Amino acid sequence: MHTTAITGTATQPFMGAALGDGAKVSGFAAAAPNGIETGALGLAGSRVRFERDAEIYAEGDDAACFYEVVSGVVRSSKLLADGRRQIGAFLLPGDIFGFEAGAEHRFAAEAVTDCTVMVHRRRGVEALAARDAGLAQRLFAHTVRNLERTQEHMLLLGRKNAAEKVAAFLLDMAERAPAGDGVDLPMTRYDIADYLGLTIETVSRTLSQLERQSAIALPSTRHIVLKNRAALRRLNA
Amino acid sequence: MHTTAITGTATQPFMGAALGDGAKVSGFAAAAPNGIETGALGLAGSRVRFERDAEIYAEGDDAACFYEVVSGVVRSSKLLADGRRQIGAFLLPGDIFGFEAGAEHRFAAEAVTDCTVMVHRRRGVEALAARDAGLAQRLFAHTVRNLERTQEHMLLLGRKNAAEKVAAFLLDMAERAPAGDGVDLPMTRYDIADYLGLTIETVSRTLSQLERQSAIALPSTRHIVLKNRAALRRLNA
DNA sequence: CGATAATTTGATTTTTCTCAAGACGCGTGG
DNA sequence: CCACGCGTCTTGAGAAAAATCAAATTATCG
Question: What pTM was estimated for this model as a whole?
Answer without folding.
Answer: 0.86
